[in-house]
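hey
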């Protein structure tokens, strides 16, 4: 008999300090335990670096851990985030491909800093890399470095004055296509899920993503209203997609930790795990070592 609660719930969208969150793996596991979550997934941006340590911390805390990542992609000019669940984190092709996107992120930090320097904001790229201390640094790390150096008063000020689109230090990011991201996840034995579709309301790209093999859609998310969640539940039904959900908690970086504020019934986790098992089996057939 399982010692897990019968009606457990999960939070399948979480970040640690291996991307732009603030939680360590141990903090994430402790917070998950406080929230009495049965299962959690780690979905750091463009990396799986945090998966092994978070799996260990969750195991020690008696919480089921699901491997994940959140790939930044693009479809018809829309930035789309694609969650990859259950991927084999040792897969050489997967690590090689996300390595390229990690290099893109690192070069982008250097460009952002150059632009800041051009407008006499004396930040150094090394200060950002030291603070980020991970392979997939992003604008939130630049914002924190600016606050730390006393060059702005807050993270919001950093984005408003310098970092958001069309501000002086904004640098676009090269992204893979949504179809390539989906294929990359599949060939690594994972299931591909469209993250927070309600954030950019890019519904028109969904049919093409379904065509490319999308497995699921994140209906429940901190920034989805009940009506938005209902809208995407209907969409999932229409396209026969799996339903997932998560808080998108970034730890303490954006105020109170959100972990556990969005709870996915465990039955939905089981369906996701079944799909991952199918994808794994297909990988063995189509991409033998
Ligand atoms: P990047 O992947 O480097 O483009 O950075 C994206 C991250 O920056 C996401 O995690 C966002 O939550 C965060 N972000 C974007 N815009 C803002 C903003 N105006 N204020 C604070 N954080 C932001
Ligand atoms: Fe983020
Ligand atoms: Fe996202
Ligand atoms: Zn996220």
């Amino acid at each position: 008999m399982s010692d897990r609660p019968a009606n457990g719930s999960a939070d399948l969208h979480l970040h640690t300090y291996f991307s732009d969150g603030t939680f360590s793996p141990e903090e994430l596991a402790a917070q998950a335990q406080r929230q009495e979550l049965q299962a959690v997934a780690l979905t750091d941006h463009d990396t799986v670096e945090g998966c092994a340590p978070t799996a260990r911390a969750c195991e020690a805390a008696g919480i089921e851990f699901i491997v994940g990542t959140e790939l930044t992609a693009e479809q018809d000019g829309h930035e789309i985030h694609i969650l990859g669940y259950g991927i084999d984190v040792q897969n050489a092709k997967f690590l090689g491909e996300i390595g390229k996107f990690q290099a893109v992120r690192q070069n982008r930090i250097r460009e952002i800093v150059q632009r800041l320097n051009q407008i006499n904001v004396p930040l150094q790229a090394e200060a950002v890399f030291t603070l980020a201390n991970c392979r997939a640094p992003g604008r939130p790390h630049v914002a924190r470095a600016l606050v730390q150096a006393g060059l702005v008063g807050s993270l919001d000020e950093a984005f408003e004055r310098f970092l958001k689109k069309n501000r002086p230090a904004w640098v676009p990011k090269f992204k893979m296509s949504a179809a390539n991201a989906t294929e990359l996840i599949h060939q690594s034995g994972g299931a591909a899920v469209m993250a927070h579709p309600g954030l950019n309301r890019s519904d028109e790209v969904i049919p093409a993503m379904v065509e490319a093999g999308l497995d699921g859609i994140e209906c429940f998310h901190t920034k989805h209203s009940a009506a938005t969640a209902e809208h995407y539940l209907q969409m999932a039904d229409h396209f026969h997609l799996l339903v997932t959900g998560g808080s998108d908690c970034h730890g303490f970086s954006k105020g109170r930790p959100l972990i556990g504020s969005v709870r996915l019934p465990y039955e939905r986790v089981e369906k996701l795990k079944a799909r991952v098992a199918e994808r794994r089996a297909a990988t063995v057939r189509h991409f033998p070592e």
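The mean pLDDT is 94. Residues 20, 45, 138-140, 155-156, 159, 164, 173 surround adenosine monophosphate (ligand 1) (CB under 6 Å).
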